[in-house]
Amino acid sequence: MDASAYWKYQMVAMAAVGFLMGLGFMQDNTVLIMIALAIAGSSILFLRRRVEEPLYDERSASVSRKASAAAFSAFTVGSLVVSAILFYLGNVSDPGYLQWAYGMAFIVCALMIVRLIFWIYYTWRLGG
In which domain, by residue range, is 44 found? Predict the structure, then answer.
């Protein structure tokens, strides 16, 4: 099997898991969710062994790093904007929004601290 076929099968498996998880949550059926996850995970692992060409190279690693950095930045900025809106709504209309605003702000700050810790670790580990 070639890599493009593997990626197509993986996308189909993820779509099926998403559908079955949504169905399981709607029906409050945790067994269906666990079965869907087990079948999709095992089928992806089985199919990965049948691929002859490399699935991960330097270009994939670079794209993955850039995508994760962009996703982290977008999530951080988006969460801070939503937190600022909730702060405003908490001061103007309903004080209940303040709890959500503080919660989001603290989560974003904790996430940034964890990123800083990993950055310091990898800078030390890789000698940067």
Answer: 3-49
Give the dihedral sign, CA 106/108/114/119: negative
Q: How many CA atoms lie within 13 A of 20 on its CB side?
A: 17
The two counts, helices (H) then strands (E), for the chain are 4, 0
The band of 42, judged by pLDDT with boundaries at 50, 70 and 90, is confident
Q: Which residues contact 99 (CB under 8 A, 6 or more apart)?
A: 90
Instruction: Say what angle helices 30-49 and 3-27 make with each other, to 10 degrees.
Output: 170
Rg (the chain; Cα; Å): 21
Same domain, 89 and 42: no
